[in-house]
Give the backbone structure.
Amino acid sequence: MLVFTAFAVQAQTVTKEQLQGKWRMVSFSDENGSADVLNGTWKINDKPAMPKDQVERQYEGIVSQAKDAVLKIEGNTASQMVLGEEFKGQFTLEDKNGKTYMVMDEEGGQSSTPQIYIEKGQMHIIDNEIKAHLVYNFVK
């Protein structure tokens, strides 16, 4: 499953052309805290929704999986190698109420529709399904 993620932002349309290329996750945040993938660290909120030891294991797993994973977008295909396994899907972009959503149809029949926007050269993915916000840097 491609991991995708939610906070209110200013209206912005994202085009397929802006997404083309390779992206690496640099941070992940949710109701429990945040993980800095680049530095391999995380911060748990004072009152997380889950027990702190569970959150710590979750963030440790996210950092471990994301540190070497590259999200590759070519045309309408998004793919990512995670721990030696490829996850791949087709997407379309849909604008609704001033926001852009990435409508994903993944191999295996899963689908998702996270909000996506570009800010300061970073791609932000807000996934209401998993209630998380992922930030990616472009890989040159």
User: Anything to note?
Assistant: The helical segments are 16-19, 52-66.
